[in-house]
Amino acid sequence: MRLQNRMPGRTRALLNGAARARWVRWDRWVRALQIAHLSLWTLWASQSIATPISGRMPPPQQITSFAIDRTEVTIGEVAAYAQATGFVSQAEREGGGFEFDGGWTRRPNWTWRTPFGIPASPDEPAVHLSFAEAQAVCQWRGMRLPTDAQWIEAGHTERRPVPTPPFERGRSYPYPTGDQPTGAHCLADCGQRAMTPAPTLTRLRGGGHVKAGQTQAGVNGLFDMGGNVWEWVDEAVGSERRTRGGSWWYGSAPMHVSHQASKPPHFFAVYVGFRCVAD
After folding, report:
1. Model confidence over 228-260: pLDDT tens digits?
2. Is the pLDDT of residue 37 over 50?
């Protein structure tokens, strides 16, 4: 709300020189206060955009002709979809999703709501969803899963007009974090982890994922395009669908742009999530 600091014309005429000077100083002080308030609000808004609030998604990042989610789709976002549509996932219907433990093992109550069978934060990435289920969430949001070419461009080629250092506009990088995998959330060779895995289940290899948007931002200001959880992309590989980016269960090798991986479209597991694009 704008402060009413302007002096009415009749009042201005009645004030003597000293009083008028005091009023002018007051008027300037109020104007400066308004400008400072606006600047602080703008700074807060720009700093708050990266991390989802209560699990809802921040605005997507424009790349070229498309925009892509800055973070992996969160539990909170899928919860909004489920509340609006009555969605029940295949993992929920069948009693739980999968973890690899000497073979694919179903874990009771491991679903997108409770990735490790225990209460989860709405800011965690949504996993245990098949390709079709992930696509349905994107479509509900007015978006879709990215093509493989779009995912690679967004994750490896810097397109921002004024990138944050050390990224350079137009340059392509081998990893979504840049020249090296440092800063991603992976198993062993991504540098020291800054965040504690969300589920903190030490019995799991790697410990689990971290909350969306809490690692180091990479190419195009995107989070977790490398590491954290695999991401579905809309490209067929025979009867399977491609996944990109690697996960917390692996080292940095699957993060490299040359790495190829795919999974059956009906598959769902604790390591696989997604993000969406808009045209």
Report:
1. 999 999 999 999 999 999 999 999 999 999 999
2. no
- What does the alpha-carbon distance between residue 180 and residue 193 come to, in Å, rounded to a whole number? 15
Question: Using one digit for the tens of pLDDT, what is the confidence trace for 132-189?
Answer: 999 999 999 999 999 999 999 999 999 999 999 999 999 999 999 999 999 999 988 8
Helices (H), 148-207: 148-156
Q: Which helix (H) or strand (E) holds 34?
A: helix 17-48
Alpha-carbon dihedral sign for residues 88, 89, 90, 95: negative
CA-CA distance, 90 to 109, in Å (whole number)?
12
Rounded Cα distance between 117 and 97, Å, is 10
* Residue that is written with structure tokens 């493989």 in the block: 148
Residue holding tokens 């004024």? 162
Residue 169, SS3 per DSSP? coil
CB 92 within 8 A of CB 232: no
Cβ–Cβ under 8 Å, residues 189 and 175: no
d(CA 144, CA 153): 16
Please give the helix or strand (H or E) that residue 10 lies within, else none.
helix 9-14
Nearest to 276 by CA among 69, 82, 78, 112: 69
| CA count, 13 A, side-chain hemisphere, 276 | 24
> Cα dist. 105→206, 267, 269 in Å?
17, 12, 10
In this structure, the number of other CB atoms found within 10 A of the CB of residue 84 comes to: 9
Q: How far apart are CA 67 and CA 246, in angstroms?
A: 21
Please tell me the predicted confidence (pLDDT) of residue 35.
37
DSSP label of 185? B
Is there a contact between 129 and 89 (Cβ–Cβ < 8 Å)? yes
